[in-house]
Amino acid sequence: MSKTYKPHPDTTQKAHISSLEQYKKIYNESISNPEEFWAKIAERIDWYQPWNKVREYDFVNGKIEWFSNGKLNASYNCLDRHVNNGYGDETAIIWEGNDPNQSRTFTYKELLKEVSQFANGLKDLGVKKGDRVCLYMQMIPELAIAVLACARIGAVHSVVFGAFSSDALRDRINDSACKILVTQDTGVRGIKQNIPMKANADQAVLHTPSIEYVIVVKRTGEPVHMDVERDIWWHESISNVDDKCKPEEMDSEDPLFILYTSGSTGKPKGVVHSSAGYMIYSSYTFLNVFQYDEDDIYWCTADVGWITGHSYIVYGPLLCGATTLMFEGVPTYPNVSRFWDIVDKYKVNQFYTAPTAIRALQAHGLEPLENNSLDSLKVIGSVGEPINEEAWHWYHDNVGKGKCPLVDTWWQTETGGIMISALAGITPNKPAHASLPLPGIIPVIVDAEGNELNGNNVQGNLCIKSPWPSIIRTTYGDHERCISTYFSNYKGMYFTGDGVKRDHDGYLRILGRVDDVINVSGHRMGTAEVENAINEHEDVIESAVVGYPHDIKGEGIYAYVIVSTELNDDEIKDQIINVVRKVIGPIAKPDKIQIVSGLPKTRSGKIMR
Ligand code: WT7
Q: In whole angstroms, what is the distance from residue 471 CA to residue 467 CA?
């Protein structure tokens, strides 16, 4: 049986919710009177015009509104508000480059200036409120600047993870008809010194009729092709602009961004988040889960290309006036102590990473930790997939030194913010358990027929009853898909796609996906999406992809493939891997390919996984 760890007294005093009793009280209030509860929290940010209704929803039609008819701006609340309150000289972003001797910092004042300039640059190119702007970049400061610049002028950003292939980029640009693509010359990550970002972008925009301009950040100075009509250097786009830019007044429900994620079908869906609800929920959860305190240095190792980076590198921390660290590199470069060197270098107080990174570092033993004190750490966090008990203990004992609360945060691209998690130092930790819902969140366990399973010691599918402010609003261009994926399986509830167990203490333990989605290194992959990619090889007749347990990645990708080919097995396997890299990107490449002569099918001809 797992033992529970008592909260550390140091972290019990701070932030908003400050004790387990208070959490329970606030939780109950948030459920019995959600409108009053969220209205109070929404008052903490600045509005041009207050809302006239806190929430309105109809799950049958997937229609959800929060803070109706309120007017506000996300970039204003992330930047101007703090500058106006006298925090302009506080550090907003610390950027640590791939090479340890490269770093930059931005105060709130400086960031406001950079964001305003780029916002004006975008406006000069004709970008208007509601236009979509695609950001295809590595973890460079300009990515955060571009995100906030879009928010400032009301353009909807769609960040595409920098390791996606040009085909994947093209499809995402086309799905939401982006007008501008922002990228960089080449990228550096670990030992890779020239990741061909602009070249990939060039390939993609050959078939994206909506793209009018491509803006290119000079990151490495490597020569790249520039089309004189279409391509503009970032630094030139801001060379003649004003450094002030009036924020656009956005409606609470105006979309803030689109972020593509995998589902059960072959086509990724564009998850759309709103302006007000997303801001309120991401900032509230940031403060309370991590117990962020003034002057803390907070570091989330995720990539801004995923929701974790949106909510807990950019928006959540900046909305709270925090100092957020952004890291361009990888945990193993120049050596496997890199994470710990950065923690000591900046005296990081909150450290938030993924189980796959922990397991990868665990495999190198304790030596890489020996020369680091890690004394500054107060809170450590985990996200992206279930954290197994062994990794939990290794992380808790050796990184947190047994004194830092470990928050295992369960949430999804669609939820916008953390839904189930311990509050650092407040909720007693239990290894491998995400634990308890955040205020305002009602998790429900249902069986296959949709019956609610109440009480403890039950297991089933995880649904959420009633909406929270940052719930998905639609899937871009296809609202029916949003309804059928999330609101149709179980009447009157949001369906998460995850299995869950409530233990004898009432703690929730996430068991993983129950749909055709696998979780590879904390990245969500639709099996159908990988199959579609494999099937693009002309010698492939049919394929079936499943997940299998993988020591480091959590789940690996296992592909069964029927081929008709002259090539030998090794040759065809190599070619299949290359096709997947080209169609999706390296994250989707199968770990194991088995050439088979047939696949088990149901009577109706569907492949049985
Ligand atoms: C899926 C969502 C949300 C941030 C990154 C992933 C799995 C996420 C946990 C956790 C167990 C987790 C779920 C979820 N997941 N966090 N703490 N414990 N599972 O976002 O790509 O939208 O994937 O990741 O299966 O449904 P995503």
A: 6
- Rg of the chain, C-alpha, whole Å: 23
Kindly give the distance from the C-alpha atom of residue 558 to the centroid of ligand 1, in angstroms, as a whole number. 20
CA 118 to ligand 1 center in whole angstroms: 33
CA distance 40 to 43: 5
Atom 5 (ligand 1) nearest CA: 384
Global pTM exceeds 0.85:
yes
Distance of CA 530 from the midpoint of ligand 1 (Å): 19
**pLDDT one-digit tens code per residue, 510-523:** 999 999 999 999 89
Q: Is the CB of 385 under 6 A from ligand 1?
A: yes
pLDDT above 50 for 346: yes
Evaluate whether 201 touches 183 at the Cβ level (below 8 Å): yes
Residue pair 476/270 in contact (Cβ under 8 Å)? The answer is: yes
88: left (phi over 0), alpha (psi -120 to 50) or beta: alpha
**Contact (Cβ atoms closer than 8 angstroms) between residue 321 and residue 377:** no
Q: Atom of ligand 1 at shortest distance to CA of 302?
A: 5
CA of 322 to the centre of ligand 1 (A): 24
Q: Which of 300, 475, 519 to mutate to test the pocket of ligand 1 (most atoms within 8 A of CB)?
A: 519
Per-position DSSP letters for 291-360, written without gaps between them: T--TT-EEEE-S-TTSHHHIIIIIIHHHHTT-EEEEE-S-TTSSSTTHHHHHHHHHT-SEEEE-HHHHHH
Apex 511 CA angle, 507 and 517, nearest 5: 145
Length of the chain: 609
For the cut 70, the answer to whether the pLDDT of residue 1 exceeds it is: no
Q: Phi and psi for 314 in degrees, rounded to 5? A: -95, -75
CA–CA separation, 541 and 561 (whole Å): 8
**Residue 343 CA to ligand 1 centre (angstroms):** 25
Alpha-carbon torsion (181, 182, 187, 189), positive or negative: negative
Closest by CA position to 368, among listed 333, 392, 393, 403: 333
Answer yes or no: is the C-beta of 160 below 6 A from any ligand 1 atom: no
Per-residue pLDDT reduced to its tens digit, 418-438: 999 999 999 999 999 999 999
Q: Across-strand partners of 273?
A: 257
* pLDDT tens column, 272-286: 999 999 999 999 999
503-508: Cβ within 8 A, 24+ apart: 503/433, 503/456, 503/457, 504/456, 504/457, 505/4, 505/430, 505/456, 506/436, 506/456, 507/430, 507/433, 507/435, 507/436, 508/410, 508/420, 508/433, 508/434, 508/435, 508/436, 508/437, 508/443, 508/462
| Probe residue for ligand 1, chosen from 508, 510, 520 as the CB with the greatest number of ligand atoms within 8 Å | 510
User: Over 131-145, what HEC string results?
Assistant: CEEEECCCCCHHHHH
Residue nearest atom 19 in ligand 1 by C-alpha distance:
385
Amino acid found at 66: W
